[in-house]
Design a protein that fits this description.
This protein has helices spanning 2-30, 35-56, 60-69, 71-84, 88-106, 111-127, 130-143. It is mainly alpha-helical and 148 residues long. The chain folds into two domains: 1-31; 34-143.
């Protein structure tokens, strides 16, 4: 009888602890990554979108010039994501997934429509220096919701 009571008590204790554990796990999943990782994601997202738009819209000079002007910021964003994702392999998977995801959105419209929609970004990128790029990305990261 004592053994049954002990087992019942242990099961009851385990069940009582589950809501707390579930809440902790949910909070951990829903919490935002650090600001540096959010900015890095937005910066690399912008660069990837720009690359796709430049390639599709025959504006590769815009992309190449942007990369030269913003080389240090881009490398810093890459390093921040590598640290956040705990290594190059995870970063490479994430970066490939991001590029595939963004490229799929392009397939929902004609190339002409996509280029027309991308024109503001292409024009913005032509003049965006490192300080403006970092400021723009910081504002994007601040307004982005967590768990996207």
């Amino acid at each position: 009888m004592k053994k049954i009571a002990l087992v019942v008590a242990l099961v009851a204790a385990a069940v009582a602890a589950q809501p707390g554990l579930a809440a902790e796990k949910a909070t951990a999943r829903s919490s935002c990554p650090p600001q540096s990782a959010r900015e890095a994601e937005q910066g690399l997202r912008y660069m990837t979108q720009l690359g796709i738009a430049s390639n599709t819209c025959s504006s590769m000079g815009v992309y190449a010039d942007f990369r030269v002007r913003n080389h240090d910021a881009i490398v810093a964003y890459q390093h921040a994501m590598i640290a956040h994702l705990h290594g190059n392999a995870a970063f490479d998977r994430w970066n490939t997934s991001l590029a595939n995801q963004l490229a799929q959105h392009q397939q929902n419209v004609t190339p002409e429509q996509f280029c027309q929609q991308s024109m503001p970004m292409l024009e913005q990128a032509k003049t965006m220096d490192a300080a403006r790029f970092r400021a723009y990305i910081a504002s994007q990261a601040a307004s982005a919701s967590c768990g996207r």
